[in-house]
Each structure stands twice: as C-alpha cells, then as structure tokens.
C-alpha cells in the first residue's frame, strides 16, 4: 500500500470528509513546485524588475505611485499585479537592498554592508531616488525593516519634506513563521487551511516601533502582519482557505499568496482608497 492509498483508506475508516486522490495529488504537486527556491525566487522579482527606476511621464494625466523598498516591495507589487490594482496610475519602484534599508542614517547599515550600499552602480538609495520621490503623488514604503531603520523612520520621512498633497503609506514587516514543506506534504490537504505558525517576536517589536513613531503624522501606517493574519501578530495561517500556500520561505509570497495579500491589503486598509 503506497502513501496515497494509505491516506485514502485511513480517511474512509475514520469517517472524515475525503478529498479525491486527484485533489490530493494536485495539492502536493503545487507544494513541491513552490518549495523550489529558484521557481519561487524568480516569481518574487519577476514583475518588479519591469518597473524598477521606471521614469514617470510628467506630461501624462495619470497620477504617479512610487513604491520604495527591498524584496518586500516586490512582494507588495506582486499583490498589485495579481489583483489588478493601480491600473489607473503610473507605477515605479526604487529597489533598495535589505542590507541598505530606506534611510539616510548610515549608522543603520552594518559595517560589512557599507561598501555595497555606498556604490551607486550596485545599490539604490533614498538620496538617489529623491527627485522621483518629489515627482510622485503617492509614495509607498514597504521593506523588511531592521530595528534601527524603524527607529530612524520618523526622521527619514521628515528629511524628505513631503508636500501636503502627497500621500505616504508605510507597510510594516510581515512573516509567516517557519515553512515546512515536508510536514505539509504528510498532512491531509483538508487540514492545511487550519495550519498556523508562530510569528517571531522581533516582527511585533519592529512593527510597534513603526506604528508609535508615525503617530500624529500624515503618514498612513499599515500593520500588514495583522491584516494578513486575521488580526493576530503572534500566529499566522500558512495556507489560504482553498489550500494555497501563502509564503514559500516565511517572508515572501507565492503567486496565490500575493493574490491573497493584495486582496486583503486593498480591501481592509487605507490602500483601498487608491
């Protein structure tokens, strides 16, 4: 008796609702596909490469959205693409590597990363993006924020001197815990939507700093950890209600995860006004 047959027989004996073998096989094949880091990693950057440093057409009537951040910004844009949002806008991105962070404070950058972050040919920065930031009508910061960068953010935003008619959004960190594909492959697919992971405590710490630092400002803070995890910042579901894996590594979204995240962020937060 092979593993799939055993799973089916066990379900029949226990009286649980049985998914057909084809459904089980399809779910497992999808999990295996997303566990391939090359496949999933290529997806993370596929769409954002096309808009990185894309100049705005200043003569066009369409309003301009600038997304700033690291691979988390690519994740956010994947959600935009998968849900068909922001089509009426010009959209560009400034990709600032995780090591460099969206900040002017060089003390935020680890000494070992400063050579990378100081080379304009290798790493973008807020200083290099300053002119395009001024051109944008809407600026969205979304990154894997380090603690020091989160603390420096109020000063960073103040230094940028946004106009009164510019809208600024800051998305906090998100994480889906430790992803264990082998474990999920051993589970009955009908149990996958109930699977939750613990969220690392430092995610909550950084998000609290971001939220507190932006109180009393015109900047709209979005705690996407709570939005994507049903209001919790301690535990998070790993799969959607239809058994689709949300994140392949705990940080970055699958295609289904991007569709799931984009839908929630634009339905349940101030991003919905865009």
UniProtKB/TrEMBL annotation:
Keyword Signal: yes
Keywords, ordered alphabetically: Signal
Pfam families found in the cross-reference section: SGNH
SGNH domain sequence ranges: 58-263
Signal peptide start-end: 1-26
Family annotation (InterPro entries): SGNH
SUPFAM superfamilies: SGNH hydrolase
Name assigned to this protein: SGNH domain-containing protein
Organism annotation: Leucothrix arctica
């Amino acid at each position: 008796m092979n593993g799939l047959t055993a799973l089916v027989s066990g379900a029949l004996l226990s009286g649980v609702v049985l998914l057909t073998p084809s459904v089980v096989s399809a779910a497992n094949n999808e999990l295996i596909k997303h566990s391939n880091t090359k496949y999933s990693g290529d997806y993370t950057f596929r769409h954002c490469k096309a808009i990185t440093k894309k100049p705005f057409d200043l003569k066009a009537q369409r309003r301009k959205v600038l997304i700033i951040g690291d691979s988390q910004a690519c994740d956010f844009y994947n959600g935009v693409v998968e849900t068909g949002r922001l089509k009426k806008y010009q959209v560009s991105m400034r990709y600032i590597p995780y090591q460099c962070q969206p900040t002017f404070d060089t003390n935020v950058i680890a000494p070992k990363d400063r050579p990378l972050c100081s080379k304009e040919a290798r790493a973008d920065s807020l200083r290099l993006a300053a002119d395009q930031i001024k051109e944008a009508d809407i600026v969205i910061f979304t990154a894997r924020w380090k603690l020091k960068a989160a603390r420096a953010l109020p000063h960073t935003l103040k230094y940028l001197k946004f106009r009164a008619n510019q809208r600024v959004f800051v998305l906090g960190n998100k994480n889906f815990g430790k992803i264990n594909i082998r474990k999920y492959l051993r589970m009955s697919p009908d149990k996958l939507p109930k699977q939750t992971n613990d969220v690392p405590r430092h995610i909550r710490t950084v998000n609290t700093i971001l939220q507190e630092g932006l109180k009393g400002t015109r900047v709209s803070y979005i705690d996407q950890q709570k939005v994507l995890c049903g209001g919790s910042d301690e535990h998070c579901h790993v799969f959607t209600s239809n058994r689709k894996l949300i994140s392949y590594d705990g940080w970055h979204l699958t295609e289904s995860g991007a569709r799931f995240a984009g839908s929630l962020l634009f339905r349940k937060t101030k991003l919905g006004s865009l």
